[in-house]
Amino acid sequence: VLNAQKPSKVIFYDDFTQSSLDRTKWNVVVTGDHFNDELQAYIDSSSTLYIDKGNLVIKPVFSPGFVTKDGKHFDFTSARINTKTKFDFTYGKAEARIKLTKAEGLWPAWWLLGNEVWPATGEIDIMENIGEGDWANAAVHGPGYSGETPFVNRKYFQSTNDVTNWHIYAVEWTPTEMVFKYDNEIIFRVTKKMVNHYGEWVFDTPKHLILNFAVGGIFPVKINGIKGVGQRYGLPQSTADLIKQNKATMMVDWVKISQ
């Protein structure tokens, strides 16, 4: 058949049907490094990371006075997992089925990261959300286009099908481009030619997988403007209250990588 696509081969899959996280596939990060002025410390605990009815649940928890191993103080704990040293890949389709909570200042994400020093081997943000129900975004970072990257695009959802519903967030990554798809709809394309206008294309090296749930920090602040004396950076009191009630969750049904 003309133009027939070759069937893809699944090279990584986790549908979280075990009773706890499969640590042959995933590492659980414990905060020592601190990023983006975020308000949470990452811990390895069933309070912030657990399996429920075949879904991975990542949940920030109100933990006033929590102290990290390097002596920093936080009012929230949460979870971040990755596959560094356990699984990485170069080119293919990365997708995950995810359901989020809508509340200003939350910052869950599903992304791919190069194995060397950031941003020299690239970052591919498949899905970031900062608590607004009607959109999620994809972004690409690398040398010359990191942080305030020019490569970022939002997908706006219908009010009847916002981020609090299940969506499949994916990227199709080839030697010349990254095509981001939400529920199989193309929302953004970043090509090698576009990237080379700003810096070096570093998407020809292996990337590992990351799922995390941050709270507050520099990206939420850019959107909600919550900063100043007596305020938690990027986090309104209403969302802090939601976290205290254990109602802020990132649920992951499955993660799949195919080539």
Describe, in plain words, how this protein is organized in 3D.
By secondary structure, the chain is mostly beta strands. It has three helices and 18 strands. The strands form three sheets. Strands 1, 4, 5, 9, 14, 15, 16 and 18 form an eight-stranded antiparallel β-sheet that branches. The chain is globular. 38% of the residues are buried.
Describe the secondary-structure layout:
Layout: E1 10-14, E2 27-28, E3 40-42, E4 49-52, E5 55-58, E6 61-67, E7 73-78, E8 80-82, E9 92-99, E10 106-114, E11 123-128, E12 135-141, E13 152-156, E14 167-173, E15 177-182, E16 185-191, H1 192-196, E17 207-215, H2 218-224, H3 237-244, E18 250-258
Q: What multimeric state do the chains show?
A: single chain
Termini separation: 20 Å
Helix content: under 10%
Report the principal-axis shape: globular
Task: Give the H and E element order.
Answer: EEEEEEEEEEEEEEEEHEHHE
Average of the residue pLDDT scores = 96
Structural class: mainly beta
- Sheet of most strands: 8 strands, antiparallel
Report the radius of gyration as a whole number of Å.
18 Å
Q: Determine the number of helices (DSSP H or I, runs of at least 4 residues).
A: 3
Count the beta strands. Answer: 18
- The stretches of 5 or more residues where confidence is low (pLDDT under 50) are none
Beta-strand percentage range:
35-45%
List keywords for this structure.
single chain; 259 residues; mainly beta; 3 helices
Short précis:
The chain has 259 residues and is mostly beta strands. Helix content is 8%, strand content 41%.
